[in-house]
Design brief:
Largest sheet: none
Number of strands: 0
Distance between the termini: 66 Å
Shape: globular
Radius of gyration: 20 Å
Low-confidence stretches: none
Helix content: over 70%
Number of helices: 13
Strand content: under 5%
Number of domains: 2
Length: 240
């Protein structure tokens, strides 16, 4: 009777959306454990490990993305509140931010503009299709905003989301090397750079460096998102 109950439960569990939610959380916790065990290398970002592991599971089980997303959409829903919650550490650093408002706004403007121009320009030079150009344009914007921008300019949100994730992974992996080459040790500068170039991935990595770096990463991510939502449609319209 017990074996029958377990079998019935597994059939029900596997056919419901709860399976992929639990699987995603379990894989992420395992990735965090592995990341800590191997010394916290940015090349082994837990989100990156989770992403590739889930992709492998979907391929092995022949599960389509819609079925997976039905179960994991709760995690997707939390992206918005998590982004908004970054306002709390930013508020804690408000006096320092007020003193540095000019370099902050200038860096965000220049960095965000260069990110869009280089992404679109290089893709066009290499012969990328228009769909790829539209997906590349919001690569340095946090996922919730990037998806909205992709829809606004006529791109594929799913393709844009994948490129956004890859951008964050690459940004976190290369950041230690870049900081060493530039001899940059200020946590505020490091955090702002990570938030601007690597959005949510960068902000998460910056918070592991400290609250100051995390606050400036959250600020850069928010400002870049607002700036990009206005500028990207204009740049894409002009360049295409």
């Amino acid at each position: 009777m017990d074996e029958l109950n377990v079998s019935s439960f597994w059939v029900y569990f596997a056919s419901g959306p709860l399976l992929w939610l639990v699987t995603t959380l379990a894989v992420y916790l395992a990735a965090v454990w592995l990341h800590r065990k191997l010394g916290g290398s940015p090349l082994l970002n837990p989100v990156m490990l989770t992403m590739f592991a889930i992709m492998g599971l979907l391929v092995l089980t022949n599960t389509d993305y819609d079925t997976y997303f039905e179960g994991a959409q709760f995690i997707h829903f939390l992206l918005g509140p998590a982004t908004v919650a970054l306002a709390v550490p930013v508020y804690d650093q408000l006096p320092r931010i007020r003193r540095l408002w000019l370099p902050i706004v200038s860096a965000c403007f220049v960095g965000g503009l260069i990110a869009v121009l280089t992404a679109v320009g290089i893709t066009l030079l290499l012969g990328g299709s228009e769909d790829l150009v539209l997906a590349m344009a919001p690569k340095s914007v946090t996922s919730p905003i990037a998806l909205g921008i992709a829809e606004q300019i006529g791109g594929y949100p799913s393709l844009a989301a994948g490129i956004v994730l890859l951008t964050g992974i690459i940004g976190c992996a290369l950041s230690p090397l870049v900081f060493r080459l530039l001899r940059q040790k200020d946590p505020a500068v490091q955090g702002f750079t990570l938030g601007l170039a690597a959005h949510g991935f960068g902000a998460a990595w910056a918070f592991q460096m400290g609250s100051l770096a995390g606050a400036f990463a959250g600020l850069a991510m928010a400002l870049t998102g607002v700036f990009s939502s206005v500028v990207i449609p204009l740049v894409v319209g002009l360049m295409l």
